[in-house]
């Protein structure tokens, strides 16, 4: 098999193979990488996280079906998990489309480097599509491999060919849903690039990227789940089915697996027709973009000029602090790379918020503070602070770092103080405001205020903890994407952080009713924050800023000395 694949690959044109490898590793911007970055390891860790999610969902399917007592309960649970997996796959594909927002279309680097060479645009387009398809295939396969086997095994019981039919239907539905969403994004991008001037397209593209990110998350967490044929046939739910693509491909799954007439036929028909439309639209827009907009890419600059007139910028302290904070704001808003990286953590924050918003919309009556809400606010604060801290390590432009190196006229502690203020204003404060907005339906008010006080102190502690050993100016130091072990972080979060957050929430909920114990809790948290603040300020006095992330040098000796 390996020899057969190698023979097929070797028969492909050399230009296509070279461009495919280059475009595949450009999922991460190469200008932001250190020279020793392990890109292959980084992509492998990403696939490992999705594979672990696949095992978790397969365990949920097995445990849920084992606990069902009747066939009706089992079919309802299977319908729920099928809809969830189709929607989850579409969410993952949508987030990949947001991450690789402009990677399929020609950029300035491609045009300047490849135009003088004897490479036709068709080869560039096919290589980019193959690279994008490889990333999508890895994500879809690793996320759905184990759940598809477990679910098909249960649904195929009692039928000789039921397992294979269900498995084939599942993969057809999941693949179709993924292609529909990705082709929809490509169609919108291509149509915008063809109809708009490049400067206006670049400005609108950033807005469309954020809108798509919010739309994918909102649909996944807010759309209802229908687990019985009666709920799907109910007239009140028809508008949800008509406007939710995940249900269209759920209908395709039921059509191909032979589960009709439980699912309406028009859902599958709408899924097939919409897939054909967006696939044709994506193909036409991509071909026209490569034929018509490549010259426009070179002739017009990528940097969009700002509007004329007077400009006023708010002050955030001293002149140095204001400059670093404004530099951080503009790096997050203007750089696609940083928006995408921070969007990953914002996805986790808004996922928790949307889950609670959905429950509030279902039952808006005031209730007491539950333990799960306390855990959710702690997690939102953690994701926001540590997410922005990790994005700070991603440089905006390594070629401009020499400006900061040669103009460092002030002590390093002032730069680190500006970094602290950036974390508090752009991560801790928004997470606290979001927690306060979600707390409006809880009573009594004094307990809500006490919990918000604890959340504010936790935000300060997390900010100081994330600054321990962080002697960088935000967005100015290269990084090593393969350095961190994503699988270890993933399991450490589920095994370590979540149980710790649950224990902290249970303890806080118990002391909220006892004023003296709550006062001791606040005093302990404040003392911890002050201690971390003093430690960071003391170390910052002798710290030296660095701008290049390098791996540790290991010296191997033969131990021949006496």
SSE order:
HHHHHHHHHHHHHHHHHHHHH
Overall number of strands: 0
Overall pLDDT metric: 80
The CA-CA distance between the termini, in Å, is 54 Å
Described by strand count, sense and barrel closure, the largest sheet is: none
Low-confidence blocks of residues:
29-37
Strand content is under 5%
Shape: globular
Helix content: over 70%
The structural domain count equals: 2
What structural category do the secondary elements indicate?
Answer: mainly alpha
Q: Give me the oligomer status.
A: single chain
Rg for CA atoms: 26 Å
What is the number of helices? 21
Description:
The protein is mostly helical and 562 residues long. It has two domains: 10-303, no CATH class; 316-549, no CATH class. The protein is built from 21 helices and no strands. The longest helix is centred in the first third of the chain and has 35 residues, at 121-155. The radius of gyration is 26 Å and the shape is globular. The termini are far apart.
Main traits of this protein?
562 residues, mainly alpha, 2 domains, 21 helices, 73% helix
Give the helix/strand layout:
Elements: H1 2-10, H2 14-24, H3 39-67, H4 71-99, H5 108-114, H6 121-155, H7 162-195, H8 198-222, H9 229-233, H10 238-243, H11 245-257, H12 265-292, H13 294-299, H14 319-334, H15 336-362, H16 371-392, H17 401-406, H18 412-438, H19 445-466, H20 486-511, H21 515-540
Helix pairs in contact: 2-6, 3-6, 4-6, 4-7, 4-8, 4-11, 6-7, 7-8, 7-11, 7-12, 8-15, 11-12, 14-15, 14-18, 15-16, 15-18, 16-18, 16-19, 16-20, 18-19, 19-21
């Amino acid at each position: 098999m390996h020899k057969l694949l190698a023979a097929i690959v070797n028969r492909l044109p050399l230009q296509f193979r070279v461009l495919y490898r280059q475009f595949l590793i450009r999922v991460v911007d190469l200008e932001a990488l250190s020279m020793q970055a392990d890109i292959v390891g980084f992509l492998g860790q990403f696939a490992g996280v999705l594979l672990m999610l696949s095992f978790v969902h397969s365990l949920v399917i097995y445990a849920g079906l084992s606990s069902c007592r009747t066939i009706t309960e089992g079919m309802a649970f299977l319908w729920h998990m099928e809809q969830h997996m189709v929607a989850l796959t579409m969410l993952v594909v949508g987030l990949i489309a947001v991450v690789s927002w402009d990677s399929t279309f020609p950029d300035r680097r491609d045009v300047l480097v490849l135009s003088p060479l004897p490479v036709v645009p068709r080869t560039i387009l096919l290589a980019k599509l193959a690279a994008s398809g490889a990333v999508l295939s890895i994500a879809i396969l690793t996320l759905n491999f184990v759940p598809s086997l477990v679910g098909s095994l249960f649904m195929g019981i009692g039928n000789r060919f039921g397992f294979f039919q269900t498995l084939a239907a599942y993969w057809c539905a999941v693949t179709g849903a993924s292609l529909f969403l990705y082709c929809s994004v490509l169609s919108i991008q291509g149509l915008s690039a063809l109809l708009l001037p490049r400067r206006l397209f670049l400005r609108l593209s950033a807005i469309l990227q954020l809108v798509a990110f919010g739309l994918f998350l909102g649909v996944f967490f807010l759309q209802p789940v229908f687990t019985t044929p009666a709920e799907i046939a109910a007239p009140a739910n028809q508008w949800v089915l008509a406007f939710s693509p995940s249900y269209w491909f759920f209908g395709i799954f039921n059509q191909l697996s032979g589960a009709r007439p439980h699912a309406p036929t028009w859902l599958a028909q709408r899924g097939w027709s919409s897939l054909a439309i967006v696939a044709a639209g994506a193909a036409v827009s991509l071909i026209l973009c490569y034929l018509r907009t490549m010259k426009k890419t070179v002739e017009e600059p990528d940097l969009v000029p700002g509007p004329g007139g007077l400009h006023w910028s708010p002050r955030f302290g001293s002149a140095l602090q204001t400059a670093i904070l404004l530099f951080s704001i503009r790096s997050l808003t203007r750089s696609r790379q940083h928006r995408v990286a921070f969007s990953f953590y914002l996805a986790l924050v808004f996922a928790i918020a949307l889950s609670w918003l959905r429950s509030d919309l279902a039952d808006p009556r005031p209730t007491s503070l539950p333990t799960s809400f306390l855990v959710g606010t702690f997690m939102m604060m953690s994701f926001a602070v540590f997410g922005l801290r990790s994005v700070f390590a991603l440089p905006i432009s390594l070629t401009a770092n020499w400006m900061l190196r040669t103009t460092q006229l002030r002590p390093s502690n002032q730069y680190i103080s500006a970094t602290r203020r950036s974390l508090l204003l752009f991560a801790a404060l928004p997470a606290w405001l979001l927690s306060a907005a979600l707390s409006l339906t809880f009573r009594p008010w004094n307990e809500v205020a006490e919990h918000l006080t604890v959340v504010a102190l936790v935000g300060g502690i997390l900010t100081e903890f994330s600054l321990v050993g962080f002697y960088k100016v935000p967005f100015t130091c290269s990084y090593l994407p393969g350095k961190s072990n994503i699988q270890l972080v993933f399991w450490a979060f589920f095994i370590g952080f979540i149980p710790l957050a649950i224990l902290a929430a249970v303890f806080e909920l118990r002391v909220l009713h006892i004023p003296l114990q709550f006062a001791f809790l606040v005093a302990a948290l404040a003392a911890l924050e002050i201690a971390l603040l003093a430690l960071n300020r003391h170390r910052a006095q002798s710290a030296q800023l660095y701008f290049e992330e390098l791996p540790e040098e290991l010296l191997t000796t033969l131990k021949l000395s006496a």
